[in-house]
Design goal:
Helix content of chain B: 55-70%
Oligomer: heterodimer
Number of domains of chain B: 1
Protein name (chain B): DNA-binding MarR family transcriptional regulator
Keywords (chain B): DNA-binding
Structural class of chain B: alpha+beta
Number of domains of chain A: 1
Distance between the termini of chain B: 30 Å
Distance between the termini of chain A: 20 Å
Number of strands of chain B: 3
CATH architecture of chain B: Orthogonal Bundle
GO molecular function, one term (chain B): DNA binding
Largest sheet of chain B: 3 strands, antiparallel
Radius of gyration of chain A: 19 Å
Number of strands of chain A: 1
Structural class of chain A: mainly alpha
Shape of chain B: elongated
Strand order of the largest sheet of chain B: 1-3-2
Largest sheet of chain A: none
Strand content of chain A: under 5%
Helix content of chain A: over 70%
Number of helices of chain B: 4
Organism (chain B): Caulobacter ginsengisoli
Shape of chain A: elongated
Pfam families (chain B): HTH_34
Chain lengths: 145, 104
């Protein structure tokens, strides 16, 4: 019969399995960032292109999840509870800020290129928050159970 | 705070610990992690599914049907409670150890 300490070590070894595999290539983060930035920039385009962009992002999200499952053997939803949540919230705030700015550009009398600039900013932010999310997730897995 | 008898066996503890860190994971990864045979792993999975701790999904991929497993919200909270109970027991054992040494 294992001791409680041995059971906690067993848990840690199982987490290490995920830790050893939980590495997403730079290209993955670039695709996620491109989807976020593209969604914001598409708000400047005439209908029905914004809706089409949103559909493409939804399809892209499914494809990325399937890629993760086939490559890593597991999938981790970025919007999970845990230590990564604050990073996810920052990403969401950046995305919502970019979309809101793009939608309200006419009412706020902003230049026509505003959605494209916002899209570029969102692209950079989402890329770095994606990388940060991965680091925080790995740190969470490495910490003791 | 008590230990969960469904999660407590080592293989199930490993299954729950791995699934608690991800959204879902493939059967093959769990087999690799636990080091048990397919049939033994299936029995553990079935036991956890019967109490509502696990959700099983089968999906075709690359011409084969793959099995994906995920902890349910009930399974996640049961695992979290089990870990807390283990931590409390480990802390109690660590606190008692110096007393035993003194008495010896």
């Amino acid at each position: 019969m294992p001791t409680p300490l041995q059971d906690l070590e067993t848990i840690q070894r199982a987490r290490a399995t995920v830790l050893n595999r939980a590495r997403w290539p730079v290209g993955y983060h670039l695709v996620v960032a491109a989807m976020g930035g593209g969604l914001v920039a598409a708000m400047a385009l005439p209908d029905p292109l914004p809706s089409m962009a949103a559909s493409l992002v939804a399809i892209g999200s499914v494809l990325l999840a399937n890629w993760s499952r086939s490559r890593l053997g597991f999938f981790v939803n970025g919007w999970r509870w845990g230590r990564t949540l604050w990073v996810s919230m920052i990403t969401l705030a950046v995305l919502l800020g970019g979309v809101t700015l793009s939608i309200l550009r006419q009412r706020l009398d902003l230049p026509d290129w505003t959605p494209f600039a916002a899209g570029a900013v969102v692209f950079v932010c989402v890329f770095f928050t994606g990388r940060l999310w991965e680091r925080v997730y790995r740190a969470e897995l490495a910490s003791a159970a | 705070m008590s230990l969960d008898s469904v999660i407590h066996p080592p293989a199930r503890l490993q299954i729950a610990a791995l699934l608690a860190t991800v959204t879902d994971a493939e059967f093959a990864l769990l087999r690799e992690t636990t080091g048990v045979s397919d049939s033994v792993l299936s029995k553990h999975i079935k036991a956890m599914e019967e109490v509502g701790y696990l959700r099983i999904r089968k999906a075709p991929a690359g011409g084969k049907t793959r099995t994906w497993l995920a902890l349910t919200p009930l399974g996640r909270s049961a695992f979290a409670a089990h870990v807390k109970a283990l931590q409390a027991l480990a802390a109690a054992a660590a606190a008692a150890a110096p007393e035993v040494a003194k008495a010896g």
